Amino acid sequence: MESGKPTALILSVLLLTATFPTGSAMGWGVVIGGVAAAVAAPFALPAIGFGAAGITAGSYAASLMSASAIANGGGVAAGSMVAIAQSLGAAGIGASGVISAGAVGAAAGAAVDHAME
């Protein structure tokens, strides 16, 4: 991990646990979702084919790139989901990306908890 990622992960966990009461089911879902997403985030893009050396041939990312290029008349549009994912896969998501993933995971955990009530 880059030097900022462990700090970002610890900060995310502290913010999540301080914001939500962990004595309730809602609090635990938020914490579990946030931590799981923050931990998985640095590995998710390379796992589906968005790597430092480019998009891996035959991967899910290659399928997304192909579909995007067909939909845009032969090229991947700048600023598209595929272009952003490739940039993040090549450069790494950084501390802010880990925090953002944690926030999205926390929101998903809250939604699941709310749906199960």
Automatic annotation (TrEMBL):
The keyword Repressor appears for this protein: no
Keyword terms, alphabetized: Membrane, Signal, Transmembrane, Transmembrane helix
GO cellular component: membrane
Subcellular location: Membrane
Signal sequence extent: 1-25
Principal location: membrane
Topology in membrane: Multi-pass membrane protein
Pfam families per the UniProt record, alphabetical: Ifi-6-16
Keyword Transmembrane carried by entry: yes
Domain of life of the organism encoding this protein: Eukaryota
The family this protein is said to belong to: Belongs to the IFI6/IFI27 family.
Name of the featured protein: Interferon alpha-inducible protein 27-like protein 2A isoform X2
